[in-house]
Amino acid sequence: MFNSNSNLPDQISYNFHIRPILSDNCFACHGPDANKREAGLRLDIEDEAFKVLAESPGKYGLVPGNPHESQVWQRINSSDEKELMPPPESNLTLTEHQKNLIQAWIKQGAIYEKHWAFVPPVKKEIPQVKNSEWPKNPIDFFVLKKQEELGVKPNSVANTERLLRRVSFELTGLPPDLEMMEAYLSDDREDAYEQLVDKLLGRPAFGERMAVFWLDVARYADSYGYQLDNLRTQWPWRDWVIHAFNENIPYDTFIRWQLAGDLLPNPTKEQLLATGFNRNHKITEEGAIDEEEYRVTYVADRTNTLGKALLGMTMECAACHDHKYDPISQKEYYQLFSFFNNIDERRTSTTPIDPLVGTPASYAKKPLMEITDEDVLSVLSFVNKQDTSKLIVSVMGELDTLRKNHIRELGIFDAYGEEVFPATPEAILSFPPSAPANRLGLVDWLFDPKNPLTARVFVNLVWKDVFGRGIVNTPGDFGMQGELPSHPELLDWLAVDFMENGWDIKRLMRQLVTSATYRQSVISEDANRDTDPDNIYYTRFSRGHLKAEFIRDMLLASSGLLVKELGGPSVKPYQPPGLWEGATAGGSTLSEYHQDHGDALYRRGLYTFVKRTVPSPSMLIFDASNRDQCEVERGNTNTPLQALVMMNDPTVLEAARVLASRLWLEESEVSEKITKAFKLILCRTPKEKEIALLLGYFQNRKEASDEKNARELLAVGEYDLDEEVDPIDTAALMQVIATLYNLEETINRS
Fold first, then answer.
1. Sign of the CA dihedral 407, 456, 631, 238?
2. Chain Cα centroid distance, residue 687
3. What's the mean pLDDT when you consider all of the chain?
4. How many Å separate Cα 742 from the centre of its chain?
5. What is the 3-state secondary structure (H, E, C) of 557-603?
6. Burial of 8 (C-beta count, 10 Å sphere; 0-12/13-18/19+)
7. Mean pLDDT of 318-336
8. How far apart are CA 737 and CA 730, in angstroms?
9. CA distances from 52 to 18, 103, 300, 390, 712 (A)
10. Is the pLDDT confidence value at 349 over 80?
11. What angle do CA 714, 719, 720 make, to 5 degrees?
């Protein structure tokens, strides 16, 4: 077989070798966007690429089997800057390796393949591997097969204590307590780990952990955004999300209710509440605006969220023109837009009760739903309604008559073009003619067994959330510009298996965390690190800090401060003074920050109030989303600001103070108190050297302090200080614990 370069694969694949080159360098001018197409040449479609060039009679862009007769090959090798492609002014260039790949591909027949993500997944046979003892479940065979091809071996298994901590945070967002640690470490059953996983999956905290992941996707916030950024009471929808994950509602039902629960026959209030998903977007309350402009913006937000979260496609690129890289036309964008354009959405809000006088406020935009005390005693028993005041949420609701739908020329809200009707992108899957032309029909299309994206996108989202790196590492872009899957057969196997087993989310999570791939240590051998520096082939477990919410949870849980109440309104913990006041326009119901007190100060990070224009600073520093729009992945940075938060945040210092005072009241030696604190925070037994170092630091802090300074240090936070503790000893122990909280190991996933 032709191979002009020993570094080239024997068989050149359009999807995996050629299309990425063309997409990065050629499709902007020779791709799907007809308005930007040059020379009449389109390279993303086989038939078009093989046509005679309209502007150059007798010449062809590609001639299968003959590179030298192909204008593509001639132009990328031209020495004439006027002929050279990509043109020099584009600042794009092809490497010699890329040119050789294109030459070899043309020589082999220039065979096109449908974009891999638009081909329905097929569940291939589990591959054979040499090291058949390593795999724990089917996932590992696919991972190990790639590793063996790469010439590396799997990493060693993580230390038992570290694995316990890792999986506890993975499934509950909380560290294991001492009782769990003792029970697991003494459990000598062969399936002890699997039994632990099942126990964690059954805890109410599982729903809270998964909700953090989904709230980013759903752009949930407690304020509307834009300039005024007033209060909204959408938290009952968050309570439903927690409930849905804990009840293990199948993913297809989970999405059906959120996208179209109001269109179901005789929908229940739970199904209506679920539709709050599509009302979580930003909403303006400013005066002197064009109402239609913002209404169109809201519809576009829903359309783009569907694309990014459920289809893994950058739909928004087609709002103003045909997509430059993916086969999605502007017409198809507005056909998809049409599904969300018939909402009975009015700007008028209900009359709020002033939240500053101590009475709970309830803000929602029409269409809305009231949650009564009777609802909470029956169908909405999972909603943590804490008083008898009126509680309303924004939900979905259709207009009585259909609104006409048009292409918006250049994306301008009132520049009406061709009339369009609800439909879906043909390149993905045709909309079934038997389905209703509404959001319920759209859900049928999403979960059609022939839809190539829905299952793939979700299992990849969950995989990235668990492993730190996606099989497709651009989870919001499965299109031409997205990364190729590192393990395409594994992705397809997981997607089909997920569908075959009833879209069972807990089962999927169990598969991932019980795999040998998941149980690997983060400490990589040199050979693996050199061969797989970016951990593309999962030769180790990924590093990175815990989610911002889980860092807060760790502090509260380890110190004993955590209030484990499930659901309810968002809370306002400690925050630097003046942030809201300095960044809020007058007239907002959230112009001033009124910190909560009592139990509300010690709720999980999930419940921290999210004001879009001024998000919690400690959360942002640890890469939490500000929830302006749908986000399917968070950054994972490592900055000095994070260390400063862990050194100075009142929640950190209060947790250290409370844990120190509780330990000081126990009848034990100082070394035992430090050991217990170490186990509670780092979830492992300290080494003798570590205890000796911490004891020395304790003694140093004790000798350097006096009662006045100690009492000033112990005054941090609102939790009552037990007067029976010795202030100097407790303050010294508090500083030891604060040091433990500031360790890199403490805030890391593994």
1. positive
2. 36
3. 93
4. 26
5. HHHCCCCCCCCCCCECCCCCCCHHHHHCCCCCCCCCCCCCCHHHHHC
6. middle
7. 96
8. 10
9. 21, 19, 39, 69, 83
10. no
11. 75
Structure tokens at 415: 């520049």
Contact between 199 and 561 under an 8 Å Cβ cutoff? The reply is no
3-state secondary structure 99-167: HHHHHHHHHCCCCCCCCHHHCCCCCCCCCCCCCCCCCCCHHHHHHHHHHHHHCCCCCCECCHHHHHHHH
When pLDDT is cut at 50, 70 and 90, the band that residue 583 belongs to is confident
Q: How far apart are CA 657 and CA 418, in angstroms?
A: 66
DSSP 461: H
CA–CA distances in Å: residue 480 to residues 32, 276, 462: 11, 32, 22
The answer to whether the beta carbons of residues 484 and 117 sit under 8 Å apart is no
Structure tokens at 67: 């590179």
CA distance 627 to 613: 10
- d(CA 290, CA 287) in angstroms, rounded, equals 9
Q: Say if CB 182 and CB 478 are below 8 A apart.
A: no
Would you list the domain boundaries of the chain? 14-113, 210-446, 647-747
The radius of gyration computed from the CA coordinates of the chain, to the nearest angstrom, equals 29
In angstroms, the CA 733 to CA 698 distance is 6
What is the pLDDT at residue 355?
40
What are all long-range contacts of 583-587, with beta carbons under 8 Å and residues at least 24 apart? 583/613, 583/614, 584/229, 584/613, 584/614, 585/227, 585/228, 585/229, 587/228
pLDDT of 621 over the 90 cut:
yes
Q: Give, in order, the Cα–Cα distances in Å from 304 to each of 224, 254, 318, 576.
A: 18, 19, 10, 35
**343, β-bridge pairs:** 398
Q: What is the pLDDT of residues 137-181, one digit of tens each?
A: 999 999 999 999 989 989 999 999 999 999 999 999 999 999 999
Strands 368-371 and 391-394, bridge-based pairing: antiparallel
Q: What length is written for the chain?
A: 750
Share of residues in the chain with pLDDT > 90 (%):
85
pLDDT (average), residues 590-594: 94
Contact 593, 581 (CB under 8 A): yes
Residue 566 scores a pLDDT above 60: yes
Surface-to-core class of residue 482, CB atoms within 10 Å of its CB (0-12 exposed, 13-18 middle, 19+ buried): buried
Token readout for 448 is: 């059609």
